[in-house]
Design a protein that fits this description.
- By secondary structure, the chain is an alpha+beta fold.
- The chain folds into three domains: 4-110, no CATH class; 130-176 and 227-407, no CATH class; 178-224, no CATH class.
- Helices cover 37% and strands 23% of the residues.
- The protein contains 15 helices and 15 strands.
- The strands form four sheets. It has a seven-stranded mixed sheet. The protein has a three-stranded antiparallel sheet with strand order 5-4-6, with no helix packed on it. Strands 9-10-11 form a three-stranded antiparallel sheet, with no helix packed on it.
- Strand 9 (288-290) and strand 10 (296-299) form a beta hairpin.
- Helix 2 (24-39) crosses helix 3 (45-53) and helix 6 packs parallel to helix 10.
Length: 414
């Protein structure tokens, strides 16, 4: 017989293993079931909906499968945990079928036939390793080989000065692509999938809630992809950042927390299509709109389109686009967005913000420093690219931003 202390200890091991992924929802659900076990109660579906998912009295479990889907997914996560950490006495923690509680059961009785294979193919592991090595090579070897510049001069520019102030720590957000697996009939990962509306484990969980049949087709691999151009751009920008004494932390877009948007200065580096949580804020006051393919931008005031030619077959030189957007945050912090439609656009935008001559041209065009207050503007560069390199560029669009419109009200002054 297992007591509550044993169940609590086992739950702690499961949480610490990381098997629940990035989603906090499964942690809340598991903690709730643990509390119910401690109190000796067996909650109903509608109680779980209210206590874990903040659903109101109008929640109808006959019409909404939210609780059942999450419990089903949590059972699968427990299966994955015990596949990697079999208990020595042949027992394991489970959520018995038809019940919402935690209990120890024989390990063999909890195994369900026809389950999804938890082991991705060897090629998937190789891909993940190569992506990490690619980023490491860029940040290590390129760091030492790039020509030295006057980064202290650049850091003193009005474009950077508010961002590099010491009032807020700096969070560098790298625009990664969240990747999940598509399963074949045998339950093995057959290919990797990127959907623009699925940018984290939480997003994938939400997709399963409203389309539960997809659980048989998709698998959370806890895998993200960083475009090469973003790594090169990050290398240039960090040279400027580290001229200051600012506390710096680097995270990925798939790991960004909403609370960070108020407590940090935010420097985003990556594709426009990877902006994720930041997308609505960046374009709230913008004169630009993002096209359906994310490879084009529209000046909605003039009707002019800016379409990237990167990735088109048979192309030699092509046109790409890089976007700078900077504006005060909701609590007096500062946002600086360094983005592009593809690699060439991202890399040139970083160069425009890290080279003294380029940033001086931008300051002159904006007349920065002539008026008090933090900068709030957007600039678009048309970049001539070749094989992911930025050969040349010109400024094709420039506009101020109404940052009160971005956050919907008055902002705290810095």
């Amino acid at each position: 017989m297992y007591d509550i202390e044993s169940i609590t200890g086992e739950v702690q091991k499961i949480v610490e293993s990381g098997i629940l992924g990035r989603s906090r929802t499964y942690g809340r659900l598991l903690a709730y079931l643990l509390r119910c076990s401690t109190d000796g109660c067996r909650p109903k579906e509608i109680e779980i909906a209210a206590d874990v998912f903040d659903k109101g009295s109008d929640f109808n479990p006959n019409q909404d499968s939210l609780v059942r889907v999450y419990v089903h997914n949590l059972r699968q996560k427990l299966d994955k945990y015990y596949a990697k950490h079999p208990d020595r006495d042949g027992m394991r923690l489970a959520i018995p079928k038809g019940e919402y509680r935690l209990a120890f059961v024989p390990a063999t009785s909890a195994v369900q036939g026809g389950g999804v294979s938890n082991m991705p193919p060897l090629w998937l592991s190789v891909v993940a390793v190569l992506l990490v090595l690619n980023l490491a090579a860029v940040l290590v070897f390129e760091w030492g080989s790039a020509p030295a510049g006057n980064y202290e001069e650049v850091a003193g520019s009005p474009v950077w000065s508010d961002m590099l102030g010491e009032e807020f720590p700096l969070l560098v957000v790298v625009g990664d692509y969240y990747i999940f697996g598509e399963l074949d009939e045998a339950g093995n990962v057959s290919r990797l999938v990127r959907e623009f509306d699925v940018n984290s484990s939480d997003d994938l969980d939400d997709l399963f809630v409203y389309e539960p049949d997809l659980q048989a087709s998709y698998l959370d691999l806890d895998l993200t992809y960083l475009p090469q151009g973003s790594a090169f751009a990050l290398k240039d920008l960090l040279r400027v950042v580290y001229t200051s004494n600012k506390l710096v932390r680097v995270t990925s877009m798939s790991e960004l927390r909403v609370a960070d948007l108020k407590s940090h200065d935010i420097l985003y580096v990556g594709y426009i299509s990877a902006l994720g949580t930041l997308m609505d804020f960046v374009f709230a006051s913008s004169g630009l709109r993002v096209g359906e393919s994310y490879d084009e931008l529209l000046n909605w005031r003039t009707g002019e389109y800016f379409t990237s030619g990167a990735g088109l077959p048979g192309q030699g030189n092509y046109q790409d686009y890089g976007l700078i957007s900077t504006f005060p945050g909701p609590d007096g912090n500062q946002f600086l967005i360094v983005a592009g439609t593809r690699d060439s656009g991202v890399m040139h935008t970083a160069q425009a913000l890290s080279a003294p001559a380029d940033i001086a041209t931008l300051e002159q065009a904006l007349a920065l420093g002539s008026e008090p207050g933090p900068p709030a503007f957007e600039a678009l560069y048309e970049v001539t690219g070749f094989d992911r390199m930025n050969l040349d560029a010109m400024l094709v669009y420039l506009s101020s931003l109404d940052y009160g419109q971005i956050w919907g009200g008055e902002l705290t002054a810095r």
